[in-house]
Amino acid sequence: MANINIRNLPDKTYKKIRKMANKSKRSINNEVVYILNDVLQEKEIKEKNNGVDILSEVLKIRNKLKGRRFPDSVKLIRQMRDEE
Known about the structure:
The chain has one domain (11-83). The protein is built from three helices and no strands. The protein has helices spanning 11-24, 28-65, 73-83. The longest helix has 38 residues, at 28-65. It is elongated and about 70 Å long. The termini are far apart.
């Protein structure tokens, strides 16, 4: 396993970690590992959910536009180029 050395950790943060470790009957090292794993797991879940949310929104918009006819984009692009 890898090791990490944390420099300039504020005393207030260290005290909070020590308090949490005592409460959960873990060493300070194990508490830090636990906290890091917990935070990373939450972040992964958020990222996955965000992707699902985005896909859901795209599908809603797609369904709203289903069956509608839109102007030919090639004509629009040519028209815009001609205006320059």
